[in-house]
Amino acid sequence: MAKTNGVNKSKAIRDYFKSHKKARPQEVVDALAKQGITTTANYVSNLKATHNKRSRAVKKVVAKGGVGVAEIKAALVFIKLTGSVAAANQALRVAQEIREIAR
Questions:
Q1: Which one, of 3, 83, 65, 64, lies nearest residue 37 by Cα?
Q2: What's the distance, Cα to Cα, between the start and end of the chain in Å?
Q3: At what angle do helices 41-65 and 9-19 cross, to 10 degrees?
Q4: CA distance 62 to 89
Q5: I need a labelling partner for 82 at 20 to 30 A (CA). Which of 20, 27, 33, 101 fits?
Q6: Has residue 68 got a pLDDT over 90?
Q7: Residue pair 41/26 in contact by the 8 Å Cβ criterion
Q8: Within 10 A of 51 (CB to CB), how many other CB atoms are there?
Q9: For a pLDDT cut of 70, what percent of the chain falls above it?
C-alpha cells in the first residue's frame, strides 16, 4: 500500500516532481528519506512513467479534438458530480433535448 502512518507516498512523490521536474528517481528517494518517507527508485519510476503517460494522452486528445485542458477538467468534474459516465451521458442527452425545445 502507498499509504502508511498517515503519509501518502504517492502524493509525496508527485509533489516532489511538481517542484523538481527533472529529478531522477534516486534523487527523489534521497530527498524523501530526509523527510522520513521510505520508498524505492523503482516505485518512483513507475509513478513518473504513469504521470508521463497520462500527460501524453491528454496532449493527444487536445491536439485531435481541439478541446483544451480546461474542458477536460470540467468534463471530469461533471462525471464525478453525476456519479458515472452513463449518468453524465443521460444528463447531456436531456440537456440537448431542452436545448432543442428552447430553439
A1: 3
A2: 53
A3: 60
A4: 21
A5: 101
A6: no
A7: yes
A8: 14
A9: 94
Question: Does residue 63 have a pLDDT over 60?
Answer: yes
Euclidean distance between CA atoms 99 and 44, whole angstroms? 48
Q: Does 4 score more than 60 pLDDT?
A: no
C-alpha cell read off for 53? 503517460
The residues spanned by each domain of the chain are: 1-65, 68-103
Looking at 4-84, list the stretches that DSSP marks H as alpha helix, in order from N- to C-terminal side. Answer: 9-19, 25-34, 41-65, 69-82
Grid cell in block for residue 27:
534523487
pLDDT, tens digit, 9 for 90 and up, residues 29-59 = 999 999 999 999 999 999 888 877 877 777 7
Name 4's bridge partners.
7
Higher pLDDT, 59 or 26: 26
**Three-state secondary structure call for residue 7:** strand
